[in-house]
Amino acid sequence: YKKGITTSGPGRISIAMLYKVEETDGAWGVTAHSYLPIAGSQYHFFPMEEATSLRKDAETGYYILVYNGGGGTRADGVKHKTTGMSYAYTTDLMGEWHYGENGFGDDVIQDNHGHYLRDANGEMQLTDLETMCANNDSNHGGVVKANGNWYVFGHINTSNGCRQGIAEKIELVYTEDGKLLIGATEETSSGMADNLDAYEIWDAGIACYRTPAKSVKATGYLGNHGAKEPVEIDFDVTHYAPMKGLVDGAVLGYKYLDFGSEAAKTGLNVLLRQEEGYTDGTIEVYLDAPTAEEGGTKIGTVTVSAAAIEAAEKTEVGTDGNVWSWLSAEMEQAVSGEHGVYFVFHAETEATTICLLDQFQFVETKHPLAITTQPTTFAGQVGDTASFTVAANRSDVTYQWMYSQNGGFNWIKSTMPGADTATLSVEFKAFRENQMYKVVVTDSEGNTVESIPVALTKAVSQVVILKNPVDQTGSIGSTATFSVKAEGEGLTYQWMYSRNGGSSWLKSTADGANTATLSIQVKAFRNGQMYKCIVTDANGVVVESASATMNMK
To answer: Measuring CA to CA, which residue among 154, 284, 153, 158 is closest to residue 210?
Structure first.
């Protein structure tokens, strides 16, 4: 063994390297293991295999060293993942360094095995499940600040040695005791963007969840990256890197797709093909997780069969001459918001491939424009507010209310507030009695449909007096009782009395004056006093009872 110190000039970082020289099959080889001064000791083993990238946070003065640990074990016993990119940090390049902390007991920021996942509730978790690469291909990349945000970038393995770039947003958290914390990131399809538009066409190869990881992967058009012969890249190739290994139980996941703020019925289009020996099957579509047990919601199924492919109305031809077919299925429920989307493949034959999947796209299902809830005629009294409401089967619509003053012979565009919404509120005024209203609904393609016409009418009384009060005679100090019986909805009562033979009436404030029965004590001054009751229904319709007289013996 020989020890050496590598430097690159004054003011540059120094790393102690331990070189191991050994003979294998008659050839001498040299391997190097790196050391850094970690947490107070002069040198600690620093399991750095390759892919180092050094960045400085100009705002804080911290230096961040991103590296691949190569599966080695740190001096404190923590074992690195070959597929993970780890980090260490310092405020003094020539001083003490610290291992990073990601919240899961290690220093990995990004792992291309896909062990770090958010569950259906959005909580980050460390799992044993390999959801990306299954081999131990190393990861290379770094961190960078752009447009005010920090990002980590690296790659995953696809197939044939090909690598696919990935990038995710990260957050640098500085604690009061001087630590720099960078949480482990989930690998997503949206990468540096917050989400992807679900209604755009996307390559199936952007899947960020691929199980079983040993077989589900993207094919590589460019071949082995270690090939000795130069590779000429053709950027105009089409349909060259579909997802393969799609057998019974395989899952492809895409995080995160944005379906918009308003719930809409959707359909799913998938571009795929079958080769000789493939089997028919289905693609079940889940939101948020690939199973109901994990919190996922199944929203639909695409049937994949040789017959469906043969009957496909839309096809495309790839650069290699293979024909790809678009298959479609309508989803079973409306979708809105941001979701992880999972394609779960099923077939009766377990180990046989169902299809090669190249692209997919969700589409908003637009049914012919129709009114689902019609407005209704309003019956009320002057001073009331009438409301007319309509509902359509589409969300991409506008409204325009119209009114007619001549029984529907001519229609005029309303300019009242709310005339361009689904609900029109109209104050009932005398001149509007029997005025008619309807609404014209227009979709984004210019199609229109009209509601039925309805009217603003005056409510007809349904209050009927069944029994009027009768004259009462009694001695002073006795009680006279006047009663009325009426029929109608939501009735209220108010007794009135007159001292001048009915020429004028006053509102009674005696106990029971707002009930159907009024009890009054007979007194001398009340001799000859008259009583009647005003009955009002829920629509404000008023009727009066006949009058009755109190007589003293």
So the answer is: 158
